[in-house]
Design a protein that fits this description.
Length: about 260
Protein backbone atom coordinates (compact mmCIF):
# COMPACT_ATOMS: atom_id res chain seq x y z
CA UNK A 1 0.00 0.00 0.00
CA UNK A 2 2.78 2.44 0.88
CA UNK A 3 4.33 2.06 -2.59
CA UNK A 4 1.04 2.99 -4.26
CA UNK A 5 0.69 5.98 -1.94
CA UNK A 6 4.13 7.20 -3.03
CA UNK A 7 3.18 6.66 -6.66
CA UNK A 8 0.12 8.91 -6.22
CA UNK A 9 2.35 11.52 -4.59
CA UNK A 10 4.64 11.49 -7.63
CA UNK A 11 1.72 12.18 -9.97
CA UNK A 12 0.34 14.86 -7.67
CA UNK A 13 3.71 16.66 -7.30
CA UNK A 14 5.17 16.17 -10.79
CA UNK A 15 2.22 15.76 -13.15
CA UNK A 16 -0.71 17.84 -11.93
CA UNK A 17 -1.98 21.39 -12.15
CA UNK A 18 -5.19 22.82 -10.68
CA UNK A 19 -6.42 19.35 -9.76
CA UNK A 20 -5.97 17.67 -13.16
CA UNK A 21 -3.13 15.55 -14.50
CA UNK A 22 -0.86 15.80 -17.53
CA UNK A 23 1.86 13.71 -19.16
CA UNK A 24 5.43 14.98 -18.95
CA UNK A 25 9.08 13.96 -18.68
CA UNK A 26 12.10 14.77 -16.56
CA UNK A 27 14.43 14.26 -19.53
CA UNK A 28 16.68 17.22 -20.33
CA UNK A 29 17.02 16.28 -24.00
CA UNK A 30 14.16 15.21 -26.27
CA UNK A 31 11.80 16.17 -23.47
CA UNK A 32 8.61 16.23 -25.55
CA UNK A 33 9.48 12.94 -27.25
CA UNK A 34 9.91 11.30 -23.85
CA UNK A 35 6.63 12.84 -22.69
CA UNK A 36 4.92 11.27 -25.70
CA UNK A 37 6.40 7.90 -24.76
CA UNK A 38 4.94 8.31 -21.27
CA UNK A 39 1.48 8.55 -22.84
CA UNK A 40 1.85 5.20 -24.61
CA UNK A 41 0.31 6.82 -27.70
CA UNK A 42 3.68 7.57 -29.34
CA UNK A 43 2.85 9.28 -32.67
CA UNK A 44 -0.78 10.15 -31.96
CA UNK A 45 -2.00 13.48 -33.37
CA UNK A 46 -3.24 14.15 -29.83
CA UNK A 47 0.30 15.26 -29.05
CA UNK A 48 1.51 16.84 -32.29
CA UNK A 49 3.54 20.06 -32.36
CA UNK A 50 5.23 19.62 -29.00
CA UNK A 51 2.07 20.09 -26.93
CA UNK A 52 2.20 16.90 -24.84
CA UNK A 53 3.01 18.66 -21.57
CA UNK A 54 0.56 21.48 -22.31
CA UNK A 55 -2.53 19.29 -22.06
CA UNK A 56 -4.73 17.81 -19.42
CA UNK A 57 -5.02 14.34 -20.97
CA UNK A 58 -8.47 12.77 -20.79
CA UNK A 59 -7.26 9.16 -20.51
CA UNK A 60 -4.64 9.90 -17.83
CA UNK A 61 -7.18 11.63 -15.63
CA UNK A 62 -9.53 8.66 -15.93
CA UNK A 63 -6.69 6.30 -15.03
CA UNK A 64 -6.17 8.40 -11.91
CA UNK A 65 -9.85 7.98 -11.02
CA UNK A 66 -9.24 4.21 -11.05
CA UNK A 67 -6.06 4.72 -9.02
CA UNK A 68 -7.98 6.58 -6.31
CA UNK A 69 -10.59 3.83 -6.21
CA UNK A 70 -7.84 1.24 -5.82
CA UNK A 71 -6.19 3.25 -3.03
CA UNK A 72 -9.53 3.59 -1.26
CA UNK A 73 -10.13 -0.16 -1.56
CA UNK A 74 -6.71 -1.01 -0.13
CA UNK A 75 -7.11 1.49 2.70
CA UNK A 76 -10.50 0.02 3.60
CA UNK A 77 -9.10 -3.51 3.64
CA UNK A 78 -6.26 -2.33 5.88
CA UNK A 79 -8.65 -0.61 8.27
CA UNK A 80 -7.27 2.86 7.45
CA UNK A 81 -10.54 4.76 7.64
CA UNK A 82 -9.12 8.27 7.32
CA UNK A 83 -7.04 7.25 4.30
CA UNK A 84 -10.07 5.65 2.66
CA UNK A 85 -12.07 8.85 3.15
CA UNK A 86 -9.21 10.90 1.71
CA UNK A 87 -8.97 8.78 -1.44
CA UNK A 88 -12.73 8.84 -1.90
CA UNK A 89 -12.66 12.64 -1.69
CA UNK A 90 -9.81 12.81 -4.21
CA UNK A 91 -11.77 10.61 -6.62
CA UNK A 92 -14.89 12.74 -6.31
CA UNK A 93 -12.97 15.99 -6.80
CA UNK A 94 -11.17 14.66 -9.87
CA UNK A 95 -14.41 13.33 -11.36
CA UNK A 96 -16.00 16.76 -10.96
CA UNK A 97 -13.08 18.50 -12.69
CA UNK A 98 -13.05 16.01 -15.59
CA UNK A 99 -16.70 16.71 -16.30
CA UNK A 100 -16.28 20.47 -15.89
CA UNK A 101 -13.04 21.05 -17.78
CA UNK A 102 -12.48 18.13 -20.16
CA UNK A 103 -15.92 18.13 -21.73
CA UNK A 104 -16.31 20.27 -24.86
CA UNK A 105 -19.86 21.37 -25.54
CA UNK A 106 -18.83 22.51 -29.02
CA UNK A 107 -17.50 19.05 -29.90
CA UNK A 108 -20.09 17.16 -27.91
CA UNK A 109 -17.22 15.07 -26.57
CA UNK A 110 -14.56 14.65 -23.95
CA UNK A 111 -11.22 15.85 -25.24
CA UNK A 112 -7.66 16.70 -24.21
CA UNK A 113 -7.67 20.32 -23.08
CA UNK A 114 -4.96 22.96 -22.91
CA UNK A 115 -3.98 23.59 -19.30
CA UNK A 116 -3.63 27.32 -19.86
CA UNK A 117 -6.50 27.80 -22.29
CA UNK A 118 -9.68 26.32 -20.92
CA UNK A 119 -10.72 29.51 -19.12
CA UNK A 120 -10.62 31.44 -22.41
CA UNK A 121 -13.04 29.06 -24.12
CA UNK A 122 -13.30 25.32 -24.22
CA UNK A 123 -9.53 24.95 -24.72
CA UNK A 124 -10.10 21.54 -26.28
CA UNK A 125 -7.66 20.35 -28.93
CA UNK A 126 -10.48 18.99 -31.11
CA UNK A 127 -8.61 15.72 -31.75
CA UNK A 128 -11.12 12.92 -31.19
CA UNK A 129 -9.77 9.46 -30.39
CA UNK A 130 -10.89 6.40 -28.37
CA UNK A 131 -9.43 8.20 -25.33
CA UNK A 132 -12.50 10.45 -25.48
CA UNK A 133 -14.58 7.47 -24.32
CA UNK A 134 -12.55 6.82 -21.16
CA UNK A 135 -15.02 8.61 -18.82
CA UNK A 136 -17.61 6.05 -19.96
CA UNK A 137 -15.18 3.21 -19.28
CA UNK A 138 -14.70 4.38 -15.68
CA UNK A 139 -18.40 5.23 -15.26
CA UNK A 140 -18.14 8.93 -14.44
CA UNK A 141 -19.91 10.51 -17.42
CA UNK A 142 -23.34 12.11 -16.91
CA UNK A 143 -26.01 10.35 -18.96
CA UNK A 144 -26.40 13.38 -21.24
CA UNK A 145 -22.68 13.37 -22.04
CA UNK A 146 -22.69 9.63 -22.64
CA UNK A 147 -25.54 10.04 -25.13
CA UNK A 148 -23.47 12.58 -27.09
CA UNK A 149 -20.55 10.15 -27.10
CA UNK A 150 -22.85 7.39 -28.37
CA UNK A 151 -23.73 9.60 -31.34
CA UNK A 152 -20.05 9.93 -32.22
CA UNK A 153 -19.51 6.19 -31.85
CA UNK A 154 -22.43 5.50 -34.21
CA UNK A 155 -21.13 7.86 -36.88
CA UNK A 156 -19.23 6.19 -39.77
CA UNK A 157 -17.46 9.52 -40.32
CA UNK A 158 -16.07 9.35 -36.77
CA UNK A 159 -15.48 5.89 -35.31
CA UNK A 160 -17.82 3.26 -36.70
CA UNK A 161 -17.26 0.37 -37.49
CA UNK A 162 -13.74 -0.35 -36.13
CA UNK A 163 -12.91 2.37 -33.54
CA UNK A 164 -9.79 3.84 -35.23
CA UNK A 165 -7.13 5.50 -33.07
CA UNK A 166 -8.01 8.84 -34.66
CA UNK A 167 -11.48 9.77 -35.97
CA UNK A 168 -12.00 8.85 -39.62
CA UNK A 169 -12.81 12.42 -40.65
CA UNK A 170 -9.82 13.98 -38.90
CA UNK A 171 -7.31 15.84 -41.07
CA UNK A 172 -4.61 13.77 -39.34
CA UNK A 173 -6.25 10.38 -39.98
CA UNK A 174 -4.41 7.70 -41.96
CA UNK A 175 -5.29 4.04 -42.45
CA UNK A 176 -1.90 2.53 -41.61
CA UNK A 177 0.30 5.09 -39.85
CA UNK A 178 0.87 3.70 -36.35
CA UNK A 179 -1.22 5.74 -33.82
CA UNK A 180 -2.68 8.09 -36.43
CA UNK A 181 -5.70 6.01 -37.45
CA UNK A 182 -5.12 2.25 -37.26
CA UNK A 183 -7.10 0.11 -34.82
CA UNK A 184 -5.33 -0.67 -31.54
CA UNK A 185 -7.28 -3.35 -29.70
CA UNK A 186 -6.39 -2.21 -26.18
CA UNK A 187 -7.84 1.29 -26.50
CA UNK A 188 -10.71 0.08 -28.69
CA UNK A 189 -11.73 -2.35 -25.95
CA UNK A 190 -11.96 0.36 -23.30
CA UNK A 191 -14.01 2.63 -25.55
CA UNK A 192 -16.40 -0.18 -26.51
CA UNK A 193 -16.74 -1.43 -22.94
CA UNK A 194 -17.53 2.15 -21.93
CA UNK A 195 -20.40 2.30 -24.41
CA UNK A 196 -21.77 -0.95 -23.02
CA UNK A 197 -21.50 0.38 -19.46
CA UNK A 198 -24.03 3.07 -20.37
CA UNK A 199 -26.54 0.73 -21.96
CA UNK A 200 -25.59 1.15 -25.61
CA UNK A 201 -25.47 -2.62 -25.87
CA UNK A 202 -26.43 -3.09 -29.52
CA UNK A 203 -23.81 -0.60 -30.70
CA UNK A 204 -21.11 -1.93 -28.38
CA UNK A 205 -21.80 -5.57 -29.26
CA UNK A 206 -21.64 -4.68 -32.94
CA UNK A 207 -18.22 -3.14 -32.39
CA UNK A 208 -17.11 -6.26 -30.51
CA UNK A 209 -18.15 -8.52 -33.39
CA UNK A 210 -16.44 -6.24 -35.92
CA UNK A 211 -13.19 -6.30 -33.93
CA UNK A 212 -13.21 -10.06 -33.37
CA UNK A 213 -14.07 -10.74 -37.01
CA UNK A 214 -11.22 -8.44 -38.06
CA UNK A 215 -8.76 -10.38 -35.92
CA UNK A 216 -10.13 -13.75 -37.00
CA UNK A 217 -9.96 -12.90 -40.71
CA UNK A 218 -6.17 -12.37 -40.49
CA UNK A 219 -4.84 -15.88 -41.16
CA UNK A 220 -1.26 -14.87 -40.28
CA UNK A 221 -1.98 -14.32 -36.57
CA UNK A 222 -2.76 -11.50 -34.15
CA UNK A 223 -1.10 -8.21 -34.97
CA UNK A 224 0.08 -5.17 -33.05
CA UNK A 225 -2.46 -2.94 -34.82
CA UNK A 226 -4.73 -3.04 -37.88
CA UNK A 227 -5.69 -1.00 -40.94
CA UNK A 228 -8.90 0.70 -39.81
CA UNK A 229 -10.50 0.47 -43.26
CA UNK A 230 -9.48 -2.97 -44.49
CA UNK A 231 -8.71 -4.77 -41.22
CA UNK A 232 -5.33 -5.97 -42.52
CA UNK A 233 -2.84 -6.66 -39.73
CA UNK A 234 0.09 -4.26 -39.31
CA UNK A 235 3.22 -4.01 -37.18
CA UNK A 236 4.48 -6.88 -35.05
CA UNK A 237 2.82 -10.29 -35.32
CA UNK A 238 1.80 -12.57 -32.41
CA UNK A 239 1.34 -9.48 -30.27
CA UNK A 240 0.62 -10.10 -26.59
CA UNK A 241 -1.77 -7.29 -25.72
CA UNK A 242 -3.87 -7.94 -28.83
CA UNK A 243 -4.20 -11.54 -27.66
CA UNK A 244 -5.01 -10.38 -24.13
CA UNK A 245 -7.81 -8.10 -25.26
CA UNK A 246 -9.26 -10.69 -27.64
CA UNK A 247 -9.52 -12.90 -24.54
CA UNK A 248 -11.13 -10.00 -22.64
CA UNK A 249 -13.72 -9.55 -25.39
CA UNK A 250 -14.56 -13.26 -25.30
CA UNK A 251 -14.51 -13.92 -21.55
CA UNK A 252 -15.01 -10.68 -19.62
CA UNK A 253 -16.65 -8.11 -21.88
CA UNK A 254 -20.23 -8.83 -20.77
CA UNK A 255 -19.47 -8.90 -17.04
CA UNK A 256 -20.98 -6.07 -15.03
CA UNK A 257 -18.21 -5.90 -12.42
CA UNK A 258 -17.31 -2.30 -11.46
CA UNK A 259 -13.77 -0.96 -11.64
CA UNK A 260 -12.82 -1.40 -7.93
Amino acid sequence: YSHFVRNELFWKEKRSQNGLFFYSSDALEERDLCAKWETGWDTSPRFDHGITESLWAIDLNCYMVIAYRALRYMAQRLGLTEDAEKWSAEEQALTKLINERLWSEDLGAYCDTFRDGFSEGSGATGILTPASFMPLFVNIAPESYAARMESLASDPCKFYPLMPSCAYDSDQYTEEDYWRGPVWINIAYMAIKGLRNYGFVKLADGYKENILNMCDSEDRGLFEYYNSRTGVGLGAIDYAWTAAFVIEFILSYELEEPLI
